[in-house]
Design brief:
two-stranded parallel ribbon, alpha+beta, 2 helices, Reverse transcriptase, elongated, two-stranded antiparallel ribbon
Length: 86
């Protein structure tokens, strides 16, 4: 994973771009390797979950948490509106 991250950082630099360490994280899905991933500006933080395009992604790779969140959101909108569903 370190090799891929270093390659990404090098390719971005060729285009005049930088990988922002503060906006980048590492999530290991079903991965046993716990090697710290480094950029030129420092190490990336490991996270257990994050939201991408409205979907919650967890380190276990499951979708249960995302489905619960979506159902909860729909129910709260339904309760707070005067719209009836048939």
């Amino acid at each position: 994973m370190q090799n891929k991250t270093s390659t990404l950082e090098a390719m971005a630099a060729k285009l005049g771009l930088k990988v922002n360490r503060d906006k980048s994280n590492i999530m290991r899905i079903n991965e046993e390797n716990s090697e710290r991933i480094k950029l030129e500006t420092g190490e990336l933080d490991d996270v257990a979950e994050f939201t991408y395009l409205g979907s919650k992604i967890t380190f276990s790779g499951g979708t249960d948490e995302d489905i619960k969140t979506r159902i909860s959101g729909v129910l709260s909108v339904k309760k707070s509106s005067n719209v009836y569903y048939y």
